[in-house]
Amino acid sequence: MDKYEVVIGLEVHVQLNTTTKLFTQVPYRYGEEPNTLVDEVVLGLPGTLPVLNKAAILKTVQVGSVFGCKIARKCKWDRKNYFYPDAPKNYQISQYDQPLCVGGFVEIELEGPARNIQGQHRKVALNRIHLEEDVGKLTHFGDESWIDFNRAGTPLIEIVSEPDMHSTTEVFAYLKSLEMHLKFIGASNCDMEKGQMRCDANVSIRPIGATQLGTKVELKNLNSISGVCNGIEHEIRRQIALVESGDKVVQETRRWDADKGESFTMRSKEDAHDYRYFTDPDLCPISLSESMIEEQVKKVPELPFAKQERYMKELRLPYTVTSVVCYDRNLSDYFESALQAYSKNPIAIANWVANDLLREMADKNTGWSALSIKPAQIAELVQLIDEQILSKQSAKKVFTDMFATGKNPRQIVQEKGLEIKVDLQALKKLCEEVIVAFPKPVAEFRAGKEKAINVLKGQIMRQTQGKVPVNMIDKLLLECLNA
Amino acid sequence: MNDLIFKPVEELIKGLQDKQFSSVELTKAYIQRTHAIDDQLKAFLSFDEDKTLKEAQASDERRAKNQCLSDLDGIPVGLKDIFSEKGQPLTCASRILEKFVSPYDATLVKKLRQSGLVMWGRLNMDEFAMGSSSENSAFQVTSNPWNLERIPGGSSSGSAAAVAAGEVPLSLGTDTGGSIRQPAALCGIVGLKPTYGRVSRYGIVAYASSLDQAGPFARTTKGVARLLQVICGSDAKDATSARRPVPQFLKEMCSFQDKKWTLGVPEEYFGEGLDPEIRASIESAIDFYRKCGYIIKPIHLKTIEYAIPVYYIVATAEASSNLARYDGIRYTYRSPRAKTVDEVFDLSRSEGFGDEVKRRILLGTYVLSSGYYDAFYGKAQKVRRLIHNDFMEAFKTVDAVLTPTSPVPAFKKGERTSDPLAMYLSDIYTISVNLAGLPGLSIPCGFTQSQLPIGMQLIGRPFEESTILSIAHEFERQHSFHTQTPQL
After folding, report:
1. Which domains does chain A have, with CATH numbers?
2. Judged by CB atoms within 8 Å, which residues 336-375 of B form the interface with A?
């Protein structure tokens, strides 16, 4: 295995979640009754013509700017001709020699040595991103095949990487990064199960140190991220076995069968389609103005990795919590709104959002749109704790209540009488009693073993039923010990 | 009522306005005429009498309430079987679409409805608009009303023959390389191909998308101008339709009446292959204009010799892709012999398409193949640009170009069917107009000794349909060729 270098390039198709299809005003939604999201244009009836949905262009420009592509000032539409029953016109409107986005890269984050340690980042070079229309979906039952054209005509971007990945670890990180970024800017939901993101891989091997690329094999039907990795791993082993036994890798397209864990020849190089690309005479070339491009670039928010760097540096957030808060648009927007309401304790806010909020949402099966607890309310909760009005223990209960009712934390604290009321005299007395009652840890503490104080602290917390903030106990206990 | 059928549209409009007859009466006259002669003529592929009479009745009701939608409200119009009309067959004279009924209206059909026209029948054509004689129709060969042994021209064969024979006063056709002008010339009526982009192509079955354009047939230039008015205009459903205002054609052409235009006469259009009788007719038309005070200017259109090869590369390339959707899978004919997906494609298309269509699909597939693209399609696009430039250069000094429409009058059925190249030459004078995207018009300008109509072509600057209409009208005012009717 270590004699060879693996070279992988990916072609990833991603459905854009525009309101309507690429060339007609019919919406697309996953899982609808077959052939209900169609019109005469989608079905390619005689005489129909495509009319461009500009929103798809604008979204693709945003995607291009996320990945640092050069945005074309001029591009055009080409017909890719081939016969297949899922293509209503037997040609697909695509972009051949003038793609909308050229070059660029996808920043990926490799796995770190531990979960709480940030992994290495690297940039995977892109070749291009172009826009095209999706085709319908074939389903086979026994010897019958059925076609659903609901999906046909949905805008699809094809993100073509350079052969710039060298392991399935990188492939995994690449797909995760694509998914994260595209979801983050709201371009697609990227659900591979629903076909919103689909991936073909070009795989080759070469002796370590070689500069020329080996013969590539294209893998299709990789239907999940794990499927992509398994398929590629299998292909690498297959190619190495071929070369080791003195055979050659043949250029071909192979179909991955995830159930069997094997791939099969789909078509050889000789059977490759001649797509007879030519400019679609039904559509005009597109000119993109500087101001239009600028406007789209401006719409792109601060991206996850940059945000993460900033949070770690400026807000001193630990890596683990940033990797939750920054990688998801809803979470990061939520966190930032909360931070705006109360900026003194970002770590506490981040923890509430990344841990308690997410857990509660999962438990109660609540989506972002149905969420009744507002960011400013979480900020207020943190502030109550910071101001020693509420103890952390009680705060958990308050939070559960807030999540269920959407009430302000202050109101809940008042209604339930959870406000901290500390009798300093009594607390001091308690400290002194505990010091007397536990001479051993006291002695240890005085001998320099600082942790020994925890035993005393635990005793006091137990006796005050968690209503007294820990830092207050700390302070008094130290005073007594040092007295 | 039989005296109505050959009346020009101007008189029909007046008759309806003066309540001399109703739209139902008028429509019935054409229906009767169709029943009487179409067994011989074979201009109609199908018609729906009830539907048509309902439309006529609706028009009469509007008129009774003084709510006419336009001057043409209540006037029948025939449609080439290439325009999508909701609920009506749309066959393109092809077996592969024999059973297809369209579920939607073409933009042009919507416009006809909005102006209150009465749609009468689906007219025969060469299959998918490929041909010049109707002999490529899968269903029937239309006859020339002036001589039933001869062809009416094509591909809008039924549209031209039906108007010439008085089966309908107006009709619509499409013109990709001459398919309106050539049959208009051969049938002795007026036919106009508008500037590319004038008329929405939405709902018109595509042959060659960058060349196809729909246009009107009528007995007179005024009739053509009126119908043109109805169908023109930019359309959000056709990205190639021109985003520019549409002038009032009739008004504009009449306002041009006393203008003395400069006409270009290209030497290249009068060479070998031009029938001497046609040459003589065109020359006397040129004389007429000279006497009217027009300036006649000999010009050169040197790239014209490349027009036919360029056309048969561009048009077939686009056709090979446009016709791919007729595959036996969904709404088209499916071969009963097909067992596998590939057989559904192969057998359905082999059995469903006629020879000429197959020939052009093969040619188009070839010129787009990898390795041949640059030599054929790429080169053809460049030459196409040169042809356009040639015309635009000429239009710096002339207002319109005058040529014969067809090199020969209507030929006999079967005469050219075995020789596709001879058939392709029928369009030699019209084809470059499509490649350049210009407006072109054919009007009757004479008869051969054997009583076959001769047509004259006027080619205008882009979007200057009114100019060529006005020039044609000047000729028409002082000649009576357009008033003659076939013995049928």
Report:
1. 4-292 (no CATH), 317-416 (no CATH), 424-482 (1.10.10)
2. 341, 344-345, 365, 368-370, 373
